Amino acid sequence: MVNLSHRMSKPVTESVLTVKDLSIILSREGRPSRIIDGISFDMFPGEIIALLGESGSGKTSIGLTLQGLLPREHLPRVTGSIRLAGIELVGAGRRTWRSARRRLVRAIPQDPMGALNPTMTIRHQMRESDGGSAGSIEDWLSRTGLPDPDRIADALPHRLSGGQRQRVLIAMAMMARPKLLIADEPTTALDVTVQAQILDLLRNLARDQQAAILFITHDLGVAASLADRVLVLYAGRIVEMGRMQELARNAAHPYSAGLLAARFDLDSDRRRPLFTLPSERTPSMNVENACAYATRCPIAQPDCTATRPPLEPVSAHSGAVACLHYEQTPFLSSKRAEAKPWPAQAIGETAALKLSNVGKTYPTGPRSIWGRRQPQQVLKSINLSIKLGECVALVGESGAGKSTLLRIAAGLLVPESGTVSRFDKLPPQVVFQDPVAALTPWLTIGEQLGERLRAVSLDSDYGRRRVGEAIKLVGLDPVLMDALPAEMSVGQCQRAVLARAVIVPPKLLLCDEPISAMDVSLAATTLNLLSDLRRRLDMAMLFVTHDLAAARIIADRIAVLKDGELVEIADPDAIIAAPQSAYTRSLVAAMPGPAAGGGR
User: Fold this and answer.
1) Radius of gyration over alpha carbons of the chain, in Å?
2) Phi, psi of 572, rounded to the nearest 5 degrees
3) What separation in angstroms does the CA of 246 have from each of 376, 383, 468, 530?
4) Which terminal CB of the chain, N or C, has fewer other CB atoms within 10 Å?
5) CA distance 5 to 20
6) Residue 520 and residue 516: Cα distance in Å, rounded?
């Protein structure tokens, strides 16, 4: 393990966690695959470390390993050392792991609903999770800022919002007073106001209980606002580590620098395509004795494919980097060609979509004395028009009614009041949040695209040509026409979903949180692709998101939805610079600052 104690000041106390030369091999499709490759780091009481990397880099596998929860069906082989509170866990028995999970380590997952038992009240689940703590359940819930803790304690999980469920999980973790807390993407699916509140809770937990927090994330802005130190993970290896503030200003590894450059915020230039990292990592590359980033690296030299770079102290900051030519990284930004501005998009006068006084209710309110649920109004007199060629972003917190509005626009739901009119008789196409789930797993990509060519056989030359053209349009290799979704990355699946949507170009494309679960480089690539397709095919677009920065990048106008009502709609720069409603001002204020900022 690289020794940086003389360079990075740390608390004068014993480490809570020491990981040394950790490697993880899982069996996938009958073949062993090295997921984590010899990583080492330590953590101290009250310290927050961000584990940062793209999807597939191995972040979640590290979190599961530290809990002893790697899936057995993958026949995990773990080597190296994990010492938690002085206890060696690699090779430990089940009883030792159960004791560690109860007393020493707790986790906050990305999906709070999946982590809670839907058939048990919060009170019951918190009693089961209690590690012998003092204080009532209501007291612990109130510490997380939950209003009406008595009601929350006696509620079933589905009665709570996403943010409330996440706070419940934090309260459950706080009750056990763990030495180590693993937070795996806990804010990814939350809107910015709730996200800011959850980050505050984690800061308080580290400070008040001196818990070490491993914060797993792909969001550089969130990491910069929270963490003391950062570990940058690529292909199962730590390629750079250091203090968050220093690394954000002076990243030494070209991958870290690329992540910084790919991040977009409220100050990004929306007139040009976003910077993106080079093409996705080639999974088949043999990197045993090479730099894993060499095939994507803009400063790679011949020795990068013949030598594995060690993690060594670096002059750029007080951390370490695994790069043979890191001294060239500062010059990357000067060599990077500025993207040409987007061509002007013609916006017509005719509406591609028009919603007039649209209202929608669901029977989700409290039950009456007769046992019936009272209707709860989800959308209230919505008036929204999207012109041909125009992109409108719909922004709002969870539960505001964004997805309901999109489903009404798609014709999947019928409103109780108002009218919906579309320019085109053909139904609009929808791009959902999870591209893998949106594809049929047993059909090839070509077959799924061909389904939209109703009158054309995919076996015909014309059918295959049309499918090939759609695949090329979204930047996919035509050989993937015969691939199954399981054989493709998440980014490739997202492009395939878009190809299916535009193979018969719609006049209206509806996007429901298409980048919310994506890492920064894939999100930037997807936004660029949507912007390009919209201009090439002259499509109107409704882009639903809780990310104000993404809305500003892609949209001609931003509509802000609060509790089922449109509170503001205006040009993106006007929304950011001079928001008119108090709610919009709170959204802008809650956005994470520039990555160069510091956490704590």
Assistant:
1) 25
2) -55, -45
3) 49, 48, 46, 34
4) C
5) 15
6) 10
Q: How many CB atoms lie within 10 A of CB 185?
A: 20
Q: What does the block give as tokens for 51?
A: 């584990």
Q: What's the length of the chain?
A: 600
Number of domains in the chain: 3
The pLDDT assigned to 390 comes to 94
Say if strands 237-243 and 312-313 run parallel, antiparallel, or are unpaired: unpaired
Residue type (1 letter), 133: S
Q: Which tokens in the block code for residue 369?
A: 């004395």
Check residue 549 and give its pLDDT.
92
Select from 250, 277, 297 the last residue of a domain.
250
d(CA 560, CA 380): 13
Residue-level pLDDT at 437: 84
What is the Cα–Cα distance from 386 to 423, expressed in whole angstroms? Answer: 10
CA separation, residue 401 to residues 192, 380, 416, 584 (Å): 16, 10, 14, 16
Residue 294 contacts residue 304 (beta carbons within 8 Å) = yes
Q: Which of 244, 355, 212 is nearest to 8 (CA)?
A: 244
Domain boundary at 250, 278, 310, which? 250
Distance CA 219, CA 173 (A): 23
The helix/strand/coil state of 261 is: helix
| Positions of the chain with pLDDT under 50 | 5-6, 283-285, 596-599
Which residue(s) pair with 43 in the sheet?
17
At residue 285, the pLDDT reads 45
Rounded Cα distance, 72 and 181, in Å: 23
312: nearest Cα among 240, 232, 234, 230: 240
Strands 105-108 and 180-184: parallel
How open is the CA angle 590-595-600, to the nearest 5 degrees?
A: 70
Q: Is there a domain that residue 97 lies in? A: yes
- Distance from chain centroid for Cα 354: 31
What residue has token string 């390629």?
239
Residue 315: per-residue pLDDT: 86
Residue 171: inside a domain = no
Q: Which residues touch 459 (CB under 8 Å, ≥6 apart)?
A: none
Pairing of strands 312-313, 320-321: antiparallel
Note whether 449 and 416 are same-domain residues: no
In terms of domains, do 100 and 182 share one? yes
At residue 11, the pLDDT reads 53
Q: DSSP letter for 243, please.
A: E
Report whether 291 contacts 300 (CB < 8 A): yes
Range of the domain at 72: 17-104+178-250
Q: Is residue 153 a part of any domain in this protein?
A: no
